[in-house]
Amino acid sequence: MVNLGQELSSNAYPGRGIVIGKSADGKYAVTAYFIMGRSSNSRNRVFVTDGTGIRTQAFDPSKMEDPSLIIYAPVRTYGFYTIVTNGDQTDTIYDGLSTGKTFEESLRSRCFEPDAPNYTPRISGLMHVITGDFDYSLSILKSDAGDPSSCLRFTYSYENPQAGKGHFIHTYMGDGNPLPSYEGEPTVVNIEGDIDTFTNNIWNSLNEDNKVSLFTRFINIATGEEESRIVNKNN
């Protein structure tokens, strides 16, 4: 297990990232989703509440250059499921669940993003909280070392997660041109404190120049009650 704050601060450009785990007191299912940006178009965004989830929105609509790949709903809920992703595959998973497909089956129709030469991975998470039980899955769809003719699909499932422990997956190993895709299994990280401590730790650890927005949510495993935070660099 590595320290989440240190893991974030050691990478100037992890891109977009998902953290899912269980609070240290064992009472909450925890998630975080953040976005970063290098271009003015990517940085011109905020998170806004959308029903029980969130969506991205242009901070200054007059400066929006290309909405594709940057305007989407990162978080949606379906029944006892919370979906967290870095793109419009949130809707793909939602539609799949509504027709009886599994998380993995729903993503079979999707691949990495068509943003050559980066071919940004699609990362997705699914939290399942019901009657005092909690489990979650993470997925990454990525090119084979930058070869767009081959899509690699990995799904990781975590049953009965341990208190104070989570998993972190993100799009890039670091800055570069092209950007190097994430490698390996999701990183095992610590989950500490209440929602505000958790939120502040992540936000303060992200690179000041590149961070754009952060969403966090704590779900009471016993009751299903949710508490969320949104932090936007553009206010």
Task: Give a brief description.
The chain is mainly beta. It has helices at 4-9, 40-43, 89-98, 103-106, 195-205, and strands at 17-22, 28-36, 45-50, 53-58, 75-78, 81-85, 122-130, 133-144, 147-159, 165-170, 187-190, 211-220, 226-232.
What does this 3D model show about the protein?
This protein is mostly beta strands and 235 residues long. It has a single domain, classed as Glutamine Phosphoribosylpyrophosphate, subunit 1, domain 1, CATH 3.60.20.20. Helices cover 15% and strands 41% of the residues. It is built from five helices and 13 strands. The strands form three sheets. It has a six-stranded antiparallel β-sheet with strand order 11-10-1-2-12-13, covered by helices on one side. The longest helix has 11 residues, at 195-205. The chain is globular, with a radius of gyration of 16 Å. The mean pLDDT is 97.
List its traits.
single chain; mainly beta; five-stranded antiparallel beta sheet; six-stranded antiparallel beta sheet; 235 residues
